[in-house]
Design goal:
This protein has 331 residues and is an alpha/beta fold. The protein has 14 helices and nine strands. It starts with a helix and ends in a 16-residue tail after the last helix.
Amino acid sequence: MVEDLREQACWLLLAFESGLSTRVVNNIVVAWCHQHKRSLQEFYAADAQEWIDICSLSADVAKKLEQSREKLVGQAFLVEQLAHNIIHILSVLDAGYPKLLKTSLKREQTPPLLFYAGDLAILERKTIAVIGSRNAGAESLEFTRAVSSCLAEQGANVISGNARGVDRAAYEGATSTDGCTTVVLPHGIRKLSGAQMRALQPKIESGNVLLMSQFHPDAQWVVSRAMERNKVVTGLAQVVIVAESDIQGGTWEGAHGALKQLRPLYVRQSDNALPGNDKLIEQGGHPLPWPVTDVAHMLSPILQESAELQQEKQEAAPRPDQLSLFAASNE
């Protein structure tokens, strides 16, 4: 167990204290850990020339890595704190790292680490993201709650991004049933307030809520992190539903990101929808007329599509630029 904690501390050091980009970090992981079958403890015990030779690093990158070694003790202390708070660390090499995420993102986008609280098995369900504006109107919120509740009742994992507006309504709708939901944070997992954690904890412990973050546990909310988080929200899902979007902003970018990830995109269509909804439909989104009298009937084809895509993704071969190309050796 001690060795595991030390290895986790080295992962934290490389991912967050080295000052290196995600792509460089993941390149090191591929070269050192996957290709040469060596641990990150061995990596940080090696000298700069060995890093340069094995990982094809520049002298400047090696210098940053040498400087980061000084922070190892602090990262070891953080690992112990996270374990005490039952917050788990998942590296991109771990068997439990979501396959769907690795097959969705390029190497420079794939988070080297994920932090989570709850049951990872929730991600093995049909997973459908519901996204929308932080300032959504009443009709959008009604749509979101009804859709999220119905999806959860039908056994789907409803994924959202933990913001006010549509995200909050998606969480409320999903947790109004005995179903499951995944909450992807736009900040560090330890930046939730005490009140927020107390509200989430019973549902985490019951196995209904999975809490996840790709950022350093103490990272503050900033716009860039919220935008980066959106790629994970849509990347974890087989299908994405848009409740409300303007023609710019986080939801607009997230919806386009979903289309780039080849996710089926469904968009609420009504007389009161924002211009972004109509534009997304023009650009390939499938309309979901609202209001409807039978929400379950409306969502039935989406649930079926999600199930079929789930099976396809599990069997799909990864592209060469994806970290998933070496995940099989760890499973």
